[in-house]
Protein: Phosphatidylglycerol/phosphatidylinositol transfer protein
Organism: Tripterygium wilfordii
Amino acid sequence: MEMIQSKLIVPLLMLISFCLMIVLARATDVKYCDKNTEYKVRVTGVEISPDPVERGERASFSISASTDEAISGGKLVIEVSYFGWHIHSETHNLCEETACPVSTGDFVVAHSQILPGFTPPGSYSLKMKMYDRNKSELTCIAFDFAIGFASSVAAS
């Protein structure tokens, strides 16, 4: 009987571990704004921490990308929607979000900020456009993220 139990427990533990890895390694789906455009900057992934984002806490967005052309500067234009309604826009200097000049190859655009404690929980969409110094669009991506119900501000 013990032999049967141990034969069942090991595969069961492996299955549970595998399922936990899938949940913890959840990737953020990134979509290009125009599927038919060959953007000069290709985005390979987005990491959001924490996920879901917590109200009143620092949220970090890390966007992995690559380019075949050096980028000397530019800007990022970010638009945020809440359940499909546009609620916020902001513009950032590209060189404040990554090291400039950006060399050919892989690079990361990283941004973090503290969301107000009164930010409503729910589903959000973020659209980011990257422009070079000549105002040419280098990429345009969109992805969804969630803001959780928990808030350390409310607990304080």
Summary: The two ends are 53 Å apart (CA to CA). The CA atoms of residues 71 and 126 lie 23 Å apart. Confidence is low (pLDDT under 50) at residues 3-26, 152-156.
